[in-house]
Amino acid sequence: MKKIAWIALVAGILLATAAYITEINDLPGAVELRTFGFIGYILIISAVAWFLLRRLYEWDKKTDAPRA
């Protein structure tokens, strides 16, 4: 799952960057790439959320808090 999250993060960054560059430079296809840029943002947010949840899970395992 970690590898999938890394792939999603990198793919999201590439999609969002491509959409941003075409929009800023007013290149042809900028309107169509907005959708892919949005998908890129979703991939970035999902991957970061998975990494943060995984980190919280690891921190919880390290603490030996007594359970009632």
Report on the structure:
This protein is mainly alpha-helical and 68 residues long. It has one domain (1-60). Helices cover 82% and strands 0% of the residues. The radius of gyration is 17 Å and the shape is rod-shaped. The two termini are 32 Å apart. The relative contact order is 0.17.
Number of domain modules: 1
Write the H/E string, N to C: HH
Mean pLDDT: 89
How much helicity do the residues have?
over 70%
Global geometry? rod-shaped
Question: Taking Cα atoms only, what radius of gyration do you get, to the nearest Å?
Answer: 17 Å
Number of helices: 2
Which spans have pLDDT < 50 for at least 5 consecutive residues?
Answer: none
Q: How far apart are the first and last residues' alpha carbons, in Å? A: 32 Å
Describe the sheet with the most strands: none
Number of strands: 0
Percent range for β-strand residues? under 5%
Derived structural class: mainly alpha
Transmembrane segments: 35-53
Keywords: Membrane, Transmembrane, Transmembrane helix
Salient structural properties:
68 residues; mainly alpha; rod-shaped; membrane
Secondary structure layout plus pairing:
Elements: H1 2-24, H2 30-62
Transmembrane segments: 35-53
Keywords: Membrane, Transmembrane, Transmembrane helix
Task: Give a quick rundown of the structure.
With 68 residues, the chain is mainly α.
